[in-house]
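Our preliminary data section would be incomplete without showing what the modeling component actually yields. Below, a chain of 220 amino acids is followed by its predicted structure, encoded as tokens that our downstream tools consume directly.
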Amino acid sequence: MKQIIAPSILSADFTNLEQDIKAAERGGADYFHIDVMDGHFVPNISYGPIMVKTMKKITDVPLDAHLMIENPDKYIPDFVKAGADLIIPHVEAPHDIYRSVQLINNLGVKAGIALNPGTPICCIEPLIEQIDAVLVMSVCPGFGGQSFQLESLRKVRKIRELLDDLKPSVHVAIDGGIKRQNVEEVQKAGANFFVMGSAVFGQEDIENTVRELKGVVENR
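Predicted structure:
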């Protein structure tokens, strides 16, 4: 399965956004991860579809929109219109996740689902045939720079085993505290889609950082 490095723009320098994005693109970034927060589902606020639209003017690299919001169905069409290639709502938000995934599929883009650290794996089973990715949160969502929770490795292993039985093409993504020092361990557990914030944009040489990370996951 393809190994994907997805820098999270939440950690980018917004005064030099295009410069940071272009550096990561030259290094070989496979996706750019866009964290959308509403101040209700998580205790922080970030940005909306306008950021996807802005990113589309900067890069041709695919964009995934991680919707940490209470009412994703209201905004999914706007993210599709803005140019998101993969949309990932949370199963824990107060909405019908199956309906959200169907909406994303009907609008012609890839659908994923995200799980918080305390959410059981059984929540994803009814959706597996409809999705392209499962995003495992290895920290509590809402803020960047948190430390990786080791218990997430067990969840990644079990999800990968479940997907291999039912739909092997589904990506297992992981988000939260992923860096050079632990990416191989996370990959060994079964993840193949690595969301990284400060591990990329917090480095002095963004281009070479992404290139080195890709070398690690592609050559393990």
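The radius of gyration is 16 Å. Helices lie at 17-27, 49-58, 72-82, 97-106, 152-166, 183-189, 198-201, 206-219. Preliminary results of this kind motivate Aim 1 of the renewal.
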